[in-house]
């Protein structure tokens, strides 16, 4: 395959005529057909569409027309995004009976307007309810760096496809950590923007008041390019109709001297493996962080997020739970049923706590610009691993992968998981967190860490990784 490490390099080569988009897409599709048999990232490809799009880009370049900042960049999406003419699976068996989508999701359309080329759809946990991408219907997506371990989820196919360099850019969704958890476990960048910042139109939702969409990539600049391309109001998404686009690229190289950065303590410093603590220390040392802050009742916020997720998700799928219960993935079925039986008073109490917690965190951001926290409490667990030790106690693996991500999703904060460089270790992620609509500050910090060599995508095929 043509050796380009990221989307920025590909777009530059296409624009300068160093490579043709059609040739790149052909190689990408061939690579997927050969290597994805073992990786199981893709559930489908759209070869004819992709090649037509590539030919149009080559013709536009030959005619001297502008190509866009993502010219010729192959990308793929979690299979809950609508692709015109394709059935939107959302990781389920039930959705196979649905008619094909009549138009692309807004995020896909905007990336293509920027010159990117859609090549296919990616594996996920059924209906985005999970942290491991072990799917009863479509199989598990293993971690590219350690195939006996999980890729994380629910956007596991999206993170693994970037980690394995099948494509340089993908889209996922994040309810309680479904972008950040797999990004951390696979050693790539994963951005969960502010709630409502990017349109969810044409994306199958799981929990309407918690769902976000966002990109995975192998560089900070790629994250910024794709994020900027997808920004903007969208009448198709009622929570994304007011905020005007705010470009983040110009701020990438401004340094960090003007930012107040603190480490999250209490809930966010307990229960982690040594590799995770080491990664957080590495980032904190590089940023010369001297301040530690607490988000009050973060553990209760996480518990409330569980209740809201279960309630909203089960209500969304209630008709199918009533008529096609046994067609659900066993890993999601019981949790959806439990959510459907939840008393309404629990849900309302969780929403009240949410408002209180939002106000407490808002006060914290009056004192600091950026917060740092681990992404996951552990490196990628084994595919068949059911429990792990946290503070000497045995806990279930799957729900606890969101230990540090859920309190932040709960109030819609923007967060980027960055892959921390640690020789000989499985991939480890650290979260960079800011106040709502301050994605530019997050990317500013991430870019500085990248230039210092503190963060970088984990090298695929790195035989030094211990297991």
From TrEMBL:
Keyword DNA repair: no
Keyword Thylakoid: no
Domain Amidase as annotated: residue spans: 24-443
Domain of life: Bacteria
UniProt keyword terms in alphabetical order: Transferase
Classification via SUPFAM superfamilies: Amidase signature (AS) enzymes
Single GO MF descriptor: transferase activity
Official protein name in the record: Asp-tRNA(Asn)/Glu-tRNA(Gln) amidotransferase GatCAB subunit A
Organism expressing this protein natively: Leptolyngbya iicbica LK
């Amino acid at each position: 395959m043509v050796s380009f490490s990221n989307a920025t390099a590909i777009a530059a080569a296409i624009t300068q005529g160093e490579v043709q988009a059609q040739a790149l897409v052909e190689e990408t599709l061939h690579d997927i057909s050969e290597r994805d048999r073992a990786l199981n990232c893709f559930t489908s490809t759209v070869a004819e569409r992709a090649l037509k799009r590539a030919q149009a880009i080559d013709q536009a370049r030959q005619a001297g027309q502008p190509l866009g900042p993502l010219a010729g960049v192959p990308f793929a999406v979690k299979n809950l995004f609508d692709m015109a003419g394709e059935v939107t699976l959302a990781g389920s068996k039930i959705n196979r009976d649905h008619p094909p989508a009549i138009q692309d999701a807004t995020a896909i359309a905007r990336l293509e307007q920027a010159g990117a080329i859609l090549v296919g759809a990616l594996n996920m946990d059924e209906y985005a309810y999970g942290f491991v991408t072990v799917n009863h219907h479509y199989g598990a997506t293993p971690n590219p760096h350690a195939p006996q371990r999980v890729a994380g989820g629910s956007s596991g196919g999206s993170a693994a496809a970037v980690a394995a360099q099948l494509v340089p850019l993908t889209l996922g969704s994040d309810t309680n950590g479904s972008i950040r958890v797999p990004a951390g476990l696979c050693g790539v960048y994963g951005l969960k923007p502010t709630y409502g910042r990017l349109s969810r139109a044409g994306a199958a939702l799981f929990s309407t008041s918690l769902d976000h969409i966002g990109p995975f990539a192998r560089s900070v600049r790629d994250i910024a390019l794709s994020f900027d391309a997808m920004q903007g109001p969208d009448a198709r998404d009622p929570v994304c109709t007011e905020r005007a686009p705010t470009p983040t690229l110009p701020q990438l190289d401004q340094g960090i001297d003007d930012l107040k950065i603190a480490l999250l303590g209490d809930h966010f410093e307990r229960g982690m493996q040594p590799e995770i603590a080491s990664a957080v220390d590495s980032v904190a040392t590089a940023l010369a962080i001297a301040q530690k802050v607490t988000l009050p009742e973060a553990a209760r916020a996480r518990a409330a997020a569980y209740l809201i997720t279960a309630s909203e998700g089960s209500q969304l799928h209630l008709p199918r739970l009533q008529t096609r219960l046994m067609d659900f993935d066993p890993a999601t079925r019981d949790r959806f049923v439990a959510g459907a039986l939840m008393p309404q008073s629990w849900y309302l109490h969780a929403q009240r706590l949410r408002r209180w917690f939002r106000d407490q965190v808002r006060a914290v951001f009056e004192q600091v610009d950026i917060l740092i926290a681990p992404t996951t409490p552990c490196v990628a667990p084994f595919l068949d691993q059911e429990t792990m030790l946290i503070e000497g106690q045995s806990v279930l693996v799957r729900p606890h992968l969101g230990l540090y991500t859920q309190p932040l999703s709960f109030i819609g904060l923007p967060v980027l998981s960055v892959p921390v460089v640690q020789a000989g270790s499985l991939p480890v992620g650290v979260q960079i967190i800011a106040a709502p609509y301050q994605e530019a500050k997050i990317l500013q910090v991430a870019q500085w860490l990248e230039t210092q060599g503190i963060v970088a995508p984990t090298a695929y095929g790195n035989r030094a990784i211990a297991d």
